[in-house]
Design goal:
Length: 399
Amino acid sequence: MSEHAALRYPITGDSALEPPTAWAELRGTCPVAHVTFVSGDDATLLTRYADVKATLADPRFTRTSPDGDSARVSEESGGVLDSQMASVLPQHGEAHLVWRRTLNKWFTAKRMAALRPGITAMADRLVDEMTAAGDTADLKAAFGFPLPVWVICEILGVPEADRDRFAYWSDTLLSMTRYTRDEITAAQTEFHRYMAGHLAAKRADPGDDLLSELATGSGMSDAEIIATGQGLLVAGHETTANMIGKMAAMLLADRARWEALLADPKLVRTAVEETLRMDVNAGFGMVRYIDREFEVGGAVIEPGTTVVCSMAAANRDEDAFEGAAEMDLARTPNPHLAFGAGAHSCLGQALARTELQVALEVLLRRLPSLELAVDPEDLQRVEGLLVGGMAAVPVRWRT
């Protein structure tokens, strides 16, 4: 491993839409690098595609140490990496595979096809509300955030009146520096109390939703079901909500991209994959705790090391993608790592893809004149969360 001085992590660039120059430098000269988290704890950063994929796909390594000696993301750590979800749900081995199999049938192609008309109708409704209010909007607040929270609450069977609270709970679970530990703990307690009550109601009067099925036929404990709901909230809301805004910003930053999609809507699917690959604000990356000697990238990582895999940096690796720095809306194949790899790859990636495709299809159909209302370089990142996104995506259109 290189003996370069430790870098402060996360590494950010000057522009919300351009990668940090450090990514290419690290891939070229220091692909296994020393970094320091906001907490002051040391870790190891991987930035090359092959190294990131090999580490994420290795079934021996999990997110955190069972002994609690993993590097802390921040001084206020807490959140999704230090929660019931992290401690209750099985993290590896057969138990983890059983848990994933139990949930997988809710994210099949058949399920996504059944959900698609409802997602489309909701997206159209949100565009109706945006256009009724004028010819400008913050696309993130008015469209990007409401759509995924509606979808995940449909899956969980959450009443519409309760859905606004989910955005705050999701934020606190993904906090890195935005909230204090007391605020995180209070929100987690409130979320747990809500889910326990919701679960009891589902057990008494089951519906056609995931929590009802888990409550009445899965064999999971209440703690496991609540933690599963927590995990699905985080994975199914915040990340996709941010990605809708980022996707629109990337495609509108160069008007030729939007025009190409208007001319050939069949490109929507590959365009979604390419925006996932090109996303420079993917967030913190995936953490793995190395509990045995591990060789990667020509270096030996010692037991007791926390490794953070930057999928966003890996997705710009020229050794893995020809013309990696260029957006190719028709790129295929596109084996990006936006959803991770291996046994811990994103369980809900089929749902995320469906939501992103529908969001783009509806925006192209309903708002063909859509454009950014600010210069791309003026877009600002979200700060203090484990997921990356734009603080706002100001847009306008012709009526």
